[in-house]
Design goal:
Blueprint: E1 3-7, E2 11-16, E3 23-30, E4 37-41, E5 47-50, E6 56-57, E7 64-67, E8 70-73, H1 76-84, E9 90-94, H2 107-116, E10 118-124, E11 128-129, E12 134-138, E13 141-146, E14 153-159, E15 170-175, H3 181-184, E16 191-193, H4 194-202, E17 215-218, E18 221-222, H5 233-246, E19 253-260, H6 264-285, H7 295-301, E20 313-318, E21 322-328, H8 348-363, E22 372-384, E23 393-403, E24 407-416, E25 419-432
Helix pairs in contact: 1-2, 1-5, 5-6
Length: 436
């Protein structure tokens, strides 16, 4: 069985950020099953930033994540090493706004994680299997995902700066399942062309670096004392970045990725499209509406009753990690009498309430939460994408981000006809039912 993994003991690295130059200490720590990979800003009251594409924010030439007020920049090299070692659950503590650059490659991270030891659990690993081609383009750049019957991730990357560019055309193929990441990919360093480096310095970025510290490529090759570690080191590093960016999916991918001059922004777009495709496939699979829990069993779990019981059936439950439920919206709903008589629209707060109720069903799957009541504590990242009207069927997904004995954090989405209607992150306080 393909099972989840973490590390056996902590490992620490120190260095300065690549762009800002701020000193930073990074510590890898083991995490429990179903925790995922999460950055923790220890200098900001242990603020957590999940390593998921939902938290990506726009930054030039790097991958950055932000949750609330906390952010972390230049995550891709670290995440590439995590992905290569197939580590599913990990806490990455950082004392500043940027991951240490070290030598500009993934090798220091890979070596530190390897030395910490890999520890397997008994919990199965979730994978995303590419079943249909997906492609994103921007001008002359492209990255695509295609189905593959072979296990693991297979990459084809072509880098091309043109006939007059300082880097010739480079093409490389890498099999993440059978290839030697530690030797062939991890040592490849981030690079910048000489003219690009000058522009960055004018913007106040990377001023602490010299061509001896980072791989700067001029018309005749690397500047300073640097030399290429591989003849095609640039394309290898682009593959390194791509592996790290793809891990923002939150699960390993089985498929073939073909890229032409793609960068971080395009990689993130592909991840979002893959997630959307997967969610669409799940909803199509559930079109038969197989009942896992009908309304009578839901009423035994939730304290809500008409007219406030807003989940009609549960069609899928994956342990205590994820649930999918249905709400059929009819003209007979009492709220349509006043919202609005001429143009009936389901109140957005009730769509969010329906997602919260589905979360309550999911929380109740754990034996230790039997007899507990999930009381709404906070709502974050709430977005209402489209109106819900009579005749619509809402397909809701609730995913556990973190569940403890007294607090639960859930991520929810609601769809109508495969179109995202609403999303929110919901936190609950778990109290004894007899307190209410």
């Amino acid at each position: 069985m393909d099972v989840q993994q973490t590390i056996a003991k902590p490992a620490t690295l120190e260095g300065r950020g690549l762009f800002g130059g701020h000193p930073a200490t990074l510590t890898f720590r083991p995490a429990p099953t179903n925790h995922g990979v999460v950055f923790v800003r220890t200098d900001m009251g242990k603020a957590e930033i999940p390593a998921l594409v939902q938290y990506v924010v726009k930054r030039a030439r790097r991958t950055a994540l932000k949750c609330g007020e906390a952010s972390i920049d230049t995550c891709e090299h670290c995440l590439s090493a995590v992905a290569a070692l197939q580590i599913d659950n990990l806490i990455i503590e950082v004392t500043g706004p940027e991951v240490p650059a070290l030598d500009g490659s993934a090798k220091p991270f890979f070596d530190a994680l390897t030395d910490a030891g890999i520890e397997a659990s008994s919990e199965p690993r979730q994978r995303l299997i590419v079943t249909e081609p997906v492609m994103v383009r921007h001008e002359d750049t492209m990255v695509a995902a295609m189905p593959s019957e072979e296990p693991g991730l297979h990459l084809v990357y072509e880098l091309d700066y043109g006939n007059n560019g300082p880097i010739g055309r480079q093409l490389r193929v890498f099999d993440c399942h059978n290839g030697n990441y530690a030797h062939d990919i991890a040592p490849s360093r981030t690079f910048v062309l000489e003219q690009e480096a000058n522009v960055l310095r004018e913007r106040g970025l990377g001023k602490h670096l010299s061509p001896d510290d980072v791989l700067v490529i001029g018309d005749k090759g690397p500047l300073g004392t640097n030399k290429f570690r591989f003849d095609d080191e640039p394309v290898r590093h682009k593959m390194l970045d791509l592996i790290g960016d793809l891990y923002l999916l939150g699960a390993p991918i089985q498929g073939r990725i073909v890229a032409y001059k793609s960068g971080h922004a395009l990689n993130h777009m592909l991840v979002r499209k893959l997630i959307k495709q997967h969610q669409s496939q799940v909803r199509r699979r559930l079109s038969l509406h197989r009942n896992v829990l009908d309304i009578r069993r839901i009423a035994r779990i939730l304290p809500h009753r008409y007219p406030m019981l807003l989940v009609d059936r549960i069609v899928e439950i994956d342990g205590d990690r994820r649930a999918i439920g249905i709400k059929n919206v009819t003209m007979n709903e009492p709220f349509f009498q006043g919202h609005y008589p001429g143009t009936p629209i389901m109140p957005g707060v009730l769509v969010v309430e329906a997602m919260a109720q589905l979360s309550g069903v999911l929380i109740g799957q754990k034996l230790e939460h039997t007899g507990k009541l999930a009381v709404l504590l906070s709502l974050d990242r709430v977005k209402l994408r489209r109106p819900v009207t009579p005749g619509d069927q809402i397909v809701m997904e609730a995913e556990a981000v973190r569940v403890r004995s007294r607090i639960a954090h859930m991520r929810c989405r609601a769809y109508v006809a495969e179109e995202l209607a609403a999303e929110a992150e919901v936190k609950f306080m778990l109290v004894d039912d007899d307190q209410e």
